[in-house]
Amino acid sequence: MKRDFLQHAGRVVGDFDLRGSLVRLEPFHRGHIHDTFVSIWKEAEGETRYLHQRINDHVFQDVPALMHNIERVTRHVAARSGASGFVTLRFVPTRLGKSFLVDESGPWRTYHFIENTQSFDLCDSEDRAYDAARAFGDFQARLMDLDPCELRETIPDFFSSPHRMEQLEDALESDPKGRAAIAAEEVRFALDRKPMVSVIEGRIRAGAFPSRVVHGDTKLNNVLFDEATGKAMCIVDLDTCMPAYSLYDFGDLVRFTAATSSEDEQDLSQVGTNLELYRALVAGYLDTAGSFLTPTEVELMPFAARLVTFTIGLRFLTDYVAGDVYFKTERESHNLDRARVQLAMVRGMEEREREMAVSRVRRG
Ligand code: GN1
Ligand code: MG
User: Fold this and answer.
1) How many domains does the chain divide into?
2) Same domain (yes/no): 273, 179
3) What are 39-80's pLDDT values in tens digits?
4) Which among 115, 134, 149 is the end of a domain?
5) In 247-329, where does DSSP find H-type helix?
6) Which uninterrupted H or E stretch holds 225?
7) Closest Cα to residue 68, out of 139, 153, 145?
8) Contacts of residue 39, Cβ cutoff 8 Å, sequence gap at least 6
9) Which of the ligands is closest to the CA of residue 155?
10) Which residue ranges have their beta carbon within 6 Å of ligand 1?
11) What's the 47 CA to ligand 1 centre distance in angstroms?
C-alpha cells in the first residue's frame, strides 16, 4: 500500500464520529475486495480500535444499497441474539450521522473492532469446523423471518451459477489478454460441467424450496472466535447478505473450511477436501439450520458444496481470462492458481460423491 494513501486514510478516518486522538493507523490485509485499515484512538479511559474500509465501488456500485442491507441485517440479527453470547457487527457513523462517507478516493465505512477474538484461514480441528457451521446455520436461522424483499440485490445475479458460466463464456469470447489458451485445460473442465450449474435454480423454480436470506461469504475467517473460550462469537463480512438459496452458505463453508490447502495453493497435490472436517460441518450446520431446511435441501448439501466450489472456480477463471479486473491479485497467474484449486476440489468431490451423501455422514 502506498504511503500517501495511508496518510490519506488517516485524514478520512477523522471524519467518523470517533473520540480521542489517533495514535496509529495500519493496513489490515483481509479479503479480495476492499482496502481495510485498523486504527487506534487514545482517550482518557484507554485505547480503542476501529476497523475502516474503503469500499470497492467497482464491485459494489450501489453503496447505499450495500449499506442498507448490512444495517437491515445487523438490526434483525441483534434483536434475535438473546442470551446466546453472540456479538453483532456495529458501525461507527460519520460526524454527519451517516453510515458511510464518500471522498475523492471513494466510499468509506467504519466498524467497532471486535476485541479478544481470533480468526482462522485454515481449519485446525473438527470442533472448530462444527462450531463455525453451527454459527452460520444459526445466523441464517435468525434471518428466517426477514423478508428477502427487504434486501436489495447489490450485485445482480451474484449467486447465480448459470450467470457465472455465461460470464466465463463472455470472457472467453473477448479474451482480452490472450489467456484463454493458457487456461485451456481448466476451461475445458469447466465447460464440460455446464449442466451442473442450473440444478439448484431448477429446483427453486419447481418450488422444491424457497430462496432465503444468506450470508453469502461463509469462509472460516469470517467467523471470529473468542480468544478465551475458543467459541464462535461473531459473524463478520456482511457485504453479500442477499436473497439466495440457503445451501449456498453451506456449500461455501465446505469449499473453504474443509479444504486441505489455502485458496491459492500452487502445489495441487495439497488440494482436496477433508472428509472429517466435512462431516463436522454437516453436523454443525444441521444442528442450527436443520429446523428450517427441507428434506430436499438436506439431500442436496453435498451437491451444494460441489456447486459452490465450482462456481467460485468459474469466477476465478473468468477473472483470469478477463485480465484480473475483479479480485485483487499479487502475481500474474494468481486467479488461475485460485481457479485450479477450486476445480481440483470439484474433481475430488465428484470422486467421493457417495461418501459425502448426508445419509451416510449422519449414520456414521
Ligand atoms: C470475495 O473479499 P472476500 O474474501 O471477502 C468475494 C466472495 C468470494 C471470495 C472468494 C463481493 O470475498 O464472493 O467467495 O472472495 N466477494 C465478493 O475467496 O465478490
Ligand atoms: Mg467477503
Assistant:
1) 2
2) yes
3) 999 999 899 999 999 999 999 999 999 999 999 999 999 988
4) 115
5) 247-257, 275-289, 295-299, 301-322
6) strand 223-226
7) 153
8) 13, 18, 22, 23, 24, 25, 26, 49, 50, 52
9) 1
10) 31-33, 59, 217, 237, 239-240, 263, 312
11) 31
